[in-house]
Amino acid sequence: MANVFPVKETKDDLPRSAMKGPNARRMAWRGVASMVVGLAWVVFIALFALLWAPSLSLFQSIVVLIASLVAAALVIGIMWMAYGMRYGWEP
Question: Helix 58-87 to helix 22-47 angle, to the nearest 10 degrees?
Fold first, then answer.
């Protein structure tokens, strides 16, 4: 059955608006940097496939693909891990 009595909403019950302030700026540059790293990885793979891959074996090409993916993931992961360790548990 629905509650018919008026209940005063607390600050915690209200929906959160868009993040503002210094935390938003810290997250914004990490988001942009993540997109730039992802785009740089795609450009690298395209250039690799066009220029260098024909001279390498399939195994060598797969190793380059995996190594570049791991490097991009490490850069993004370290960036976000630093943010999460500092601000992840704030209420």
Answer: 180
C-alpha to C-alpha distance for 18 and 25, rounded to whole angstroms: 12
User: pLDDT-based confidence at 42, cuts 50/70/90?
Assistant: very high
The vertex-33 CA angle with 67 and 52, nearest 5°, equals 35
Contact 68, 40 (CB under 8 A): no
* C-alpha of 2 from chain center: 41
pTM: 0.69
Q: Which pLDDT tens digit goes with each residue over 24-33?
A: 777 888 999 9
